[in-house]
Amino acid sequence: MQPLLKLWRNWDMANKPKQSKAKPLEEKTGARLPAAGSAKGLPLDYASLLNELKERIRKERLRVVLAANAAMVLLCWDVGRVILERQQREGWGAKVIDRLSADLRREFPDMQGLSPRNLKYMRAFAAAWPEHQIVQEVLAQIAWYHNIALLDKLDDPTVRLWYARKAREEGWSRNVLVLQIERRLHERQGQAVTNFSVTLPPPDSDMAAQVFKDPYLFDFLGTADPRREREVEQALVDHIQRFLLELGAGFAFVGRQVLLEVGDRDFYVDLLFYHLKLRCFVVVELKAGVFEPAHVGQMNLYLSAVDDLMRHPDDEPTIGLLLCKGKDRLVVEYALRDLQKPIGVAEWETRLVASLPEELEGSLPSVEEIETELGYGG
């Protein structure tokens, strides 16, 4: 136990900012160093050397942080396992954990996370995940407070593991993880009606199917019930941060009412995105009513036009997503049958669920920032 706690203390101390008392190299040696940014007397390839070293340092720092996090989570699991085994064997009660917490904090006063409550979480963590391999491969790859959220919010180990993997893959903060659990993302992911299996290669079709969900929850629209597509579109753009969160990782906003010139006519795509993992454009069309087969014909035209007018040779075929207020699944399946373009159909709802945490508000870009980045600003 002692070496493990020492490891934790070292991890804790290593992540605290330190003020260096060492004298600058110039004071110690009397040498005059060239000013930052000065190219005088430097080799021609100095800039590339500097960039290479910067990148190596960034990667190594990230590796160290991830390794330290994994070590801490494994330590929590190991401490919890020891407590659990002793309780089962010797019948420990809550008072023993309280005393253990006090003694450990007395021994390691510079450490956090040794409260009775956290020790009980460690015990629950070890009880929930008895297999060391799963802890090491999945749960140690997310933060300890992510694991606490999984313990608090979910009872099913399979569902817990699903969210742990998603949090790792998409880099969710704890607040986003809690929000996605409350939105029951695992029940909606990959549920849109699509024709991807016959219009995309097998690896791409499987990935694309998992990108889309059904239904989409636009709870940030409140209790409003928009009657026109343009009202829905405007509301989503007004809440683009939350809309991007609901769409999921990988979506980059390109624009709204994007012009497509086809022959002598102009057509306008409601919302256009680019998906970074699928490497393709995604056309999103919003419908304030239920799905109609005619919507597929309209979407087919948009996909063909985007492929011809905007798609880069290295891009994958453009995908369409029809968001409707309701749908008959069988009608959708018939409408998509034998179609050559990849299209998904899902419903959208405004039922109120968990609100976006305040802490998340500042972590996503504003509409103005997105438009400026994409060159749409003034």
**Distance between the first and last residues' Cα:** 62 Å
Q: Which descriptor suits the 3D outline?
A: globular
Identify the CATH architecture of the largest domain: 3-Layer(aba) Sandwich
> What's the total number of strands?
7
Major beta-sheet overview: 7 strands, mixed
Estimate the mean pLDDT confidence: 81
Oligomer: single chain
At the first level of CATH, what is the class of the largest domain?
Answer: Alpha Beta
Output the structural class: alpha/beta
CATH fold field value of the largest domain: Trna Endonuclease, Chain: A, domain 1
What are the secondary-structure elements, in order, as H or E?
A: HHHHHHHHHHEHHEHHEEEHEHEHH
Helical stretch count? 18
Kindly list the characteristics that best describe this protein.
single chain; 378 residues; alpha/beta; Trna Endonuclease, Chain: A, domain 1; 7-stranded mixed beta sheet; 18 helices; disordered C terminus
Describe this structure in words.
With 378 residues, the protein is an alpha/beta fold. The protein has 2 domains: 64-182, no CATH class; 188-374, Trna Endonuclease, Chain: A, domain 1, CATH 3.40.1350. Helices cover 53% and strands 12% of the residues. It has helices at 2-14, 25-29, 46-90, 94-107, 116-128, 132-137, 144-153, 157-170, 174-182, 185-188, 196-199, 202-211, 229-238, 240-247, 294-309, 329-336, 358-361, 367-374, and strands at residues 193-194, 216-217, 251-262, 265-275, 280-286, 319-324, 343-349. Strands 1, 2, 3, 4, 5, 6 and 7 form a 7-stranded mixed β-sheet that branches. Strand 4 and strand 5 form a beta hairpin. Helix 7 (144-153) packs parallel to helix 9 and helix 13 crosses helix 14 (240-247). The protein is globular and about 80 Å long. The termini are far apart. Residues 1-7, 14-18, 352-356, 360-367 and 369-378 have low confidence and may be disordered.
